[in-house]
Amino acid sequence: MTSTRDLVADRRDQYAFHDDIVYLKETKRGLTRDTVEEISRFKNEPDWMLQSRLRAYEHFLKRPMPVWTDGLGRIDFDKIVYYRKPSEREEKSWDDVPEQIKATFEKLGIPEAERKFLAGVGAQYDSEVVYHSVKEELSKLGVVFMGTDQALIEYPEIFRKHYGTVVPHEDNKFSALNGAVWSGGSFVYVPKGVEVPLPLQAYFRINGENTGQFERTLIVVEEGAKVHYIEGCVYPQELISLGDSMIPIEEVTPGMNVMNSSGVEAPVSAVRRRTYSGDLLKIVPVSVGNAFEVTPEHPILALRRERAAVWTGSIWVMEEDALHTSEPDWIPAGELRERDLICFPVAAKQVDHPEISDDLLRFLGYYLAEGSAFENGVHGAPTVNLSFNTNERAIIDDARALMTSLAGKPAGLHELPKTHDARVYVYSRELMELCKKYCGTGSATKRLHADLMELPPARQRLLLETYIAGDGNRYKLPSGNTRTRTITTSQTLAFQVQEIVARLGTYAGINIRKAFSEVMPDGRRISHREAYVVHFADEQSNKYVWFDAGRNCFWVPIRKVEKRPYEGLVYNLEMASAPNAYLARGFAVHNCTAPIYATDSLHVAVVEVVALPGSKVRYTTIQNWSNDVYNLVTKRAHAHANSTVEWIDANTGSRKTVKFPSIYLRGENASADIISVAVAGRGQHQDTGAKAIHLAPNTTSRIVSKSVSKDGGRATYRGHLKVSPGATGVVASVRCDALMLDDESRSDTYPYIDIQEDDTTMTHEATVGKISADQIFYLMSRGLTENEAQNLVIQGFLEVFTKELPMEYAIEFNRLVKLEMEGSLG
């Protein structure tokens, strides 16, 4: 059975906006006996349910907080709102759902999903289910799919017979909390012999701040019946300026400093991601290499063209006075027009580094343009090499003199007149290490060290001039101005040169030369990488770009706005201090409004599955909560004779997840299959695993657990395999594999195996390791980048999970795992 609620929690992050809802009913913050009674009274429940809630509440108070896993002591139960009612009743027709709530779920694609391939769809908003629908042909067969509260009223006998029998309130502290304040969830009933051919899926959204979600799901599958239940919550790659370089937004982590819209480095407090379906807008400035993509609602710092320029009948002419007196606005990207002006802030930070001499700066400019630093493969000598054309005599002499001075030994010169090649070289480890430290190696990966990027502009000019001399050209424009042009295959270096030129008072454009190949006269085919052309006029022309000294930024016109359809993950950053804005490819964009709050959120759910004799149930969960969520879930199934229960469970996101899907094999020949996957990133602890409890003879179980931890994340496996007395002929296997991507991450394994019958056949395997450097090298030798190679290895590691998913979810999960490493701006 596939669990939709977890897919939904992840999709909830996809739509991380906040609706201004006036709730029909709402409890006060905190949990008291009055809170429990008020929830029951709001729902007009029968007395037996009220008494059940109060019993659970009393047990919650008595039960101590678990100490076998850490971090739960930070939860403040008094700050949580335990019930919010957004709608008067649960609707069966989509048209009857209140418009504001319907708009939210239409963004989630619920009616569309229902039309496409689902047998039924449910939607929960905060505490209440607002919509449930099941296809008519299944309804005629007696299949019931509705909100749990509605089932309590319409199917009281079935509900009371099974409620709390799989997960009693007294099971653990959090099942007791759920029992006291549960609201919403899904109820599924499949009559005897009925096979539901398509999945049932439920969607959940938390909208209100400090709202806990405590849904209760009950699934009853009668003899010989089959069902697949999907439960969901799911959250691609724009460059963000760090001041000294740019990185993809998905690589930004909380606490990292990025450039804000004032040109100042500031810390990121949170990284948000969400799934998005709709138009993606590409804002293309006059510097097309700085084009960036955002969702239509994303605010961009801009000046309307008519507020700072006048139309002459053929062109827009800038009014300098208007430019400096007009106040810019944060304008949604979808409202921007051609020739509106967007803000390119100039980095304000300046720190001199006296250890970096002027001679070294001038030499590094030549190295960036024409150099390589390596250990000679023949005899291992540390080598620095510069390549020039023999006609560049003055440059050769200058570079050779600098190399000699810095290395403390004469630099060699090797010339090939026939090919006009000249090579200036020296064998020096110290100079080789300086080149690598400050500029890196490889034409496509060279970049300037952070220390170089924060030098005073006058010193940066020394490096820029020799870089242009070595790898650029200057030419006169018809206007008499001089234009400078450089070309590099390093995208990072292109943006860094643009930033340095901006600090020197000129806006540089970036054009992109697409990769291509050509056939040479001798028949050889030469392939050229994508390259970035940085160009600027020595005297800035007011025809295109304007400098605003008061705001220390350039106002750059929009050349065009393009749009394309897109479905996938998008990202957003929340800054720790004002302004809550950052730079996308150099341009100022604001944080989008999101219903993910600085305070921690609590998700405590209970899922009960009853698989009666001969039935088959599959429950699939792909869960990706935001990092402020404590996700504490109890999920359990009872498998009766000849039944099969499959639990396919994946967890990413959340601050802390505690979840161990369990199957109790209560009847002979029952079968359990649990596949559990966890991906733990920075600030996350995935405390997950599985339990298989054999209570009857000739039962079988398989537990497969896979975990990936990165950036200091922690993944814990807790497993429990028990063979009780009388459960003869059991066949069971447990495999837990952990993959750690760095030295800071952690993986723990706590398997508990209790076998009380001698004829049990049981296997247990466990591995912990890192990605092999040989694997990465092999894949990179086949043309993959290092990130692509790593992602491929990880996806192979997790294939045991993804191959069990429907195609749509396998694609979504693979994208989700990949985008734990990389992403896009939203």
The biggest sheet, with number of strands, parallel, antiparallel or mixed sense and barrel status, is: 10 strands, mixed
Strand ordering within the main sheet: 4-3-7-9-35-37-40-42-44-46
Give the overall pLDDT as a whole number.
Answer: 80
Extract low-pLDDT stretches: 1-23, 86-94, 100-133, 203-210, 232-236, 593-599, 821-826
Roughly how many Å is the radius of gyration? 31 Å
Content-based structural category: alpha/beta
The number of helical elements comes to 21
Outline type: elongated
Q: What portion of residues belong to β-strands?
A: 35-45%
> What is the share of helical residues?
10-25%
Q: Would you mind describing this structure in some detail?
A:
It is built from 21 helices and 46 strands. α12 packs across α13, α16 (457-471) packs across α17 and α18 crosses α19 (786-797). It starts with a helix and ends in a 7-residue tail after the last helix. The model is unreliable at 1-23, 86-94, 100-133, 203-210, 232-236, 593-599 and 821-826 (pLDDT under 50). The radius of gyration is 31 Å and the shape is elongated. The strands form ten sheets. Strands 4-3-7-9-35-37-40-42-44-46 form a ten-stranded mixed beta sheet. Strands 5, 6, 8, 34, 36, 38, 39, 41, 43 and 45 form a ten-stranded mixed beta sheet that branches. Strands 12, 13, 14, 15, 18, 19, 30 and 31 form an eight-stranded antiparallel beta sheet that branches. It has 826 residues and is of the alpha/beta class.
